[in-house]
Structures are given as C-alpha cells and as structure tokens.
Amino acid sequence: MKTIAVTGGSGKLGRQVVAALLDRQYQVVSLDQRRADLPCRQLQVDLSDFGQVAGALQDADAVVHLAAIPSPNGFPYAAIFANNALSTYHILEAASQLGIRKVVSGSSESSYGFAWSPAPLSPDYFPIDEEHPQRPAECYGLSKVVNELTGEMFHRRTGMQVVSMRYSTIMTQQEFARMDAVNPNRYEKSMWSYIDIRDAARATVAALEAEGLGAVSLNVTSDDTLSELDTEDLLRICYPDVQARKTRLTGRTAVVSNRLAKEKLGWQPLYSWKGN
C-alpha cells in the first residue's frame, strides 16, 4: 500500500489526514473540487461523475473518503443526501472495479439521530455504542446510514475492507478555547461528544492500516465529555428519562463509547479539551 487517495483533502480533517499519511511515508493524492495549499499531488474531481472518480483512482492502492456536505444546513435537503450518498457509492464502485481492497469512509455520530433531530430524541441507554439503533430524522444522518450500508454491500460483494468512521464533533485547539463547558444544555443534543482533530487523523490512519476488519462502523470520540460536570450529573439534568446503563459512568466519562475503535484499531485518544 503505497499511494493513498484522500477525497476532501482540502477540508478540515482532510488536511490533517494528508499530513499524517505523509508523515508515515505514503504517497498521497488529494481528490477535491478545489485546490488548496497541500504538500501532495492534487486532482480536481467532481465525485458525482463516476468517470472522473474512476479516472482519479487509477493509481491508488487505498482510499480515505472524507468529502461530503458536513451537516443538514446550507444546501437543499435533497442536494445534501444526493451528494453524500452518490459520492460514496461512486468511490466504492470505482474502488471495486479497480481492485482497491481498502476504503476508510467518513461517517458520523449524527447517524444515531440525536444531534439534528427536529424533535426531542433520547437514547435507549448510555453509553451509546455501535449496537445502538440509528434513528435519523433528517437528510444528513440518513445519508451516513445509507453510506454505511453501501460499504457493507461492497464488502459482501468483493471482500473489500470498508471502515466507516462515526466521527463525533471534530475540534481544534483553537475551537476548544471558544467552547462553553459550563452550561449543561450547550452540547446536549450532540451528547457532549467530541474528538481532537489530531486523534481523529490518527484513528483514520489506523483504520487504513488495520487488517481483517471486513465492513465495520466505529465511534471515533474522546474519553471525556465537553462539560465541567460529571457525566451522571449531566444525564440527570438533560436525560432523566434514560435510566439504562451498559457500563458504569464515573467522573466525566464520555457517553458515546469508543471501546470498539480502541479494540479494532489499537488506537486511543491522546488529547482532551482539558489539556494533557
């Protein structure tokens, strides 16, 4: 595995992943609709055009697919769903035809439905793990569910390894300085869940290098919450209706579980908004 194609290489996480791959001596090509100041080869590609996608992946040994509209805002809903679902299908279809055996695809914790739900929505239990039902009520979360199912289909058809990364809110050190960790309701719908961008990039590279994963979806989140309060205090205030616990939540333990990512990838988050 020498050459890695990164879609969305000019994006927030994409830039960090490109840098992490170059640090590990991979050759990297960024596939994006815009050019950026990147230290790698760049191709301007419309991922809605299958021919362009197949052409751009000709020399790739593996793919990290991060290009997407990142929320249900700013575009018509149909455009958000169509862009995210079709681009992922094109990446996986082209990869299968070209004999590419590994794809890491950017999914989201939004696929569970809580973050963007138009009506109040509570989990079945805490902490939320990958076995929890996905119940999106909007186009963005739905697109991520469809993309994960698409990855499973291609694995069944070709044996391709497809790792769907359910990233929580990806944050930089500068963003940590602006956050509100005092108000318990500030990050209630996103379950106070976050991941430092450096840890997100490390998890992405680990997923690319891992073997024998088949098709799997993994929560990529920190070990703690975006709050000064202890986790059980947060839950008593914001989710008193949810009494079920799969594991004990002590201190400021995260309410979205990253246990499976740690087990499958040999990875663990190193950074916290509280400092290290």
From TrEMBL:
Domain annotation NAD-dependent epimerase/dehydratase: ranges: 4-210
InterPro entries: Epimerase_deHydtase, NAD(P)-bd_dom_sf
Residues passing through the membrane, by range: none
Record's keyword terms, sorted: NAD, Oxidoreductase
Pfam families in the cross-refs: Epimerase
Record carries keyword Oxidoreductase: yes
A molecular function (GO) term: oxidoreductase activity
Family in the record: Belongs to the NAD(P)-dependent epimerase/dehydratase family.
Name by which UniProt lists this protein: NAD(P)-dependent oxidoreductase
